[in-house]
């Protein structure tokens, strides 16, 4: 964990990080149970077919039909591992129509990962999932603009993870601006990318760690530029989400995938 409160987004055992669109209005004890999330919407069935829900409480994306790209902090090392179940093909986790569930066989955590940067991992599945994959950025060309985030994580800071996939858009935040926020001086500019609104209100939150941050490329196809990694709480003002910069590790990810 990088700092106090990033446990919400970096502890796989607790089901780290995801989509939170949190009300910024004060909540009294009387109306706490009625507080509403704002800004996010449910994804429609088939909208993001590459999305994967992992049984340890993280997200991921199909790098190939048999390999899921997720966050290093979501797994506990490399090697044979049959304990993870990947769920795909649905936006409603309770739906059985079109739902695919496959067990893991191997995990490869980023070489040299020590909890600080290099936050990526691959999970090999027992069999392919016949759904579209999400290509990853190999250059920094797309590391700007407005990104899409999606997942089944909590819709409020400290809240429960969701039955339905939520989606939202978050704008790029420069490294300089991100580092200027309290608690973000440790940002690794060469390995991480920030996104979020200065006013807060839209963010990733606990339960979506490992999920993709993506945008359209020049051919209008989805391309992954980030992996949900860490942040200070969920959707707070001046506290953007921090994502693994996928292009930095594209070659290493490709090499690791070929070894699986």
TrEMBL record:
It holds the Pfam family Trypsin. SUPFAM superfamilies: Trypsin-like serine proteases (SSF50494). It comes from the Bacteria. One of its GO terms (molecular function) is serine-type endopeptidase activity. Residues 1-29 form the signal peptide. SMART domains: Tryp_SPc. Keywords: Disulfide bond, Hydrolase, Protease, Serine protease, Signal. One of its GO terms (biological process) is proteolysis. This is Trypsin. Residues 37-258 form the Peptidase S1 domain.
